[in-house]
Inverse folding.
């Protein structure tokens, strides 16, 4: 299943993001929708499910916010 498909059932628009999700210096894709992140941690460019990739919930109910990626 492609990463974009992983959040297709979530309400609201989905936004693409990119970042070093695995902490290995390699930039990979992520999809964000209403507080939910699907991160491609194994660099396959597809959603492989957990624990291979990561589904994270950040700020539940924050509809309409714009995520910002970075090395925090």
């Amino acid at each position: 299943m492609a990463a974009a498909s992983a959040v297709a059932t979530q309400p609201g628009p989905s936004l693409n993001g990119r970042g070093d999700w695995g902490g290995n210096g390699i930039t990979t894709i992520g999809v964000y929708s209403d507080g939910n992140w699907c991160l491609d941690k194994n660099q396959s460019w597809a959603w492989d499910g957990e624990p291979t990739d990561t589904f994270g919930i950040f700020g539940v109910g924050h509809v309409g916010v714009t995520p910002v990626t970075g090395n925090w």
Notes: The two ends are 29 Å apart (CA to CA).
